[in-house]
Amino acid sequence: MENTSIAPLLDVRNLATWFYMPKNLFSRKNDPIRAVDRVSFFINQKETLGLVGESGCGKTTLGRTILGLETPVDGEIIFSGKKIAGAGTALKAKDEKNLRKRMQVVFQDPLSSLNPRMNVMDIVTEGLLEFKMIKKKERADAARRLMGVVGLDKDAIYRFPHEFSGGQRQRINVARAISLNPKLIICDEAVSALDVSVQAQVINLFSDLREKYGLSYLFISHDLSVVSNIADRIAVMYLGRIVEQGRCEDVIFSPMHPYTRALIDAVPVAGKEKQQKMPLSGDVPSPLSPPPGCTFHPRCPKAMDVCRKTFPDVVSSGVIGEHRVACHLY
Ligand SMILES: Nc1ncnc2c1ncn2[C@@H]1O[C@H](COP(=O)(O)OP(=O)(O)OP(=O)(O)O)[C@@H](O)[C@H]1O
Ligand SMILES: [Mg+2]
Question: What range does the domain containing 221 cover?
């Protein structure tokens, strides 16, 4: 039986996904790229967790590991009360197929994720046919219904992807993603390529669908202002680790980690002083040779001696401990 009680829909514990590169002249040691390193978080049913962080911090790798496209070296993933990744997990083909139905993904580039030679009807009903949820002759009706759900013209089902605008194409991707009644949708930079006004419309669509179908989202973006428009809770990632997580309002209005503060200060807000309060200097270090201690210390204006030596433990704050931070300041 599926676990529909208070247990989270997705529970990620101590997850680590490393990549091993072939040895060459420049790297004699075979050090791993620690793309995702000891990450823990959960997503409740009907909840949106925003995952934010600079380019290369491991967001996509984390999403791909949850989707089963990368194999973690440590930790575990529990979805709907069932362990789907981690030591000793061997999913049966049937379970794996079922998982593909319950978890869907929407990527950044709406055009390249759509087959240019398939019309919209074929694109959005492909999964339904594969899982034998409809018969072939029911295709057009199913496609019309899905088009309606995502706010597209129901009579456009015989058109091809290139005949739609960027925002419309992303709606087609969303229609395909929800066609199999998933529980969780992973949105990886799903609105990043769209104009700001179109971004807002697609974000509204995600919110409406969540209410309508009780969906949960892992909403990945490098843009904190986008994430704060949709997320119930936010997790901030830096160099493979989640350094802070909590309710959206807590993270945005009372950030604890200096990195989160820097991200917030970098967001342009009308009326806010022009100069940044705590500018973020330097680039994200390579996950191949992360700095010792707290990996953020070389860029941190508050770095102390201890930060250069040991990685901070995660501490909780707030009455229910929902706001968590990994920083020696606390
Ligand atoms: N298949 C792979 N093999 C080796 N290294 C990889 C692989 N995939 C990702 N990486 C490395 O892992 C790190 C995290 O990459 P990832 O794509 O997850 O970051 P990201 O946060 O999604 O970045 P972006 O915001 O640019 O999409 C990067 O250093 C990247 O080079
Ligand atoms: Mg990415």
Answer: 10-109+217-326
pLDDT tens for 280-296 read 777 788 888 889 999 99
CA 240 – ligand 2 centroid, Å: 12
Which of 5, 8, 1 has its CA nearest to residue 184?
8
109-125 pLDDT per residue, tens: 878 889 999 999 999 99
Atom of ligand 1 nearest to the CA of 57: 21
Residue 115 inside a domain? The answer is no
Within 8 A by CB and 6+ apart from 114, the residues are 123, 161, 169, 172, 173
Closest CA to 50 of 281, 239, 250, 195: 250
Q: Which of 24, 59, 283 to mutate to test the pocket of ligand 1 (most atoms within 8 A of CB)?
A: 59
Do the domain assignments include residue 121?
no
Residue 21 domain flag: yes
Contact 58 CB / ligand 1 (< 6 Å)? yes
What's the number of domains the chain is made of? 1
CATH of the domain at 25: 3.40.50.300
Measured from the alpha carbon of residue 18, the closest ligand is: 1
Residue 209 lies in a domain: no
pLDDT in tens, 45-77: 999 999 999 999 999 999 999 999 999 999 999
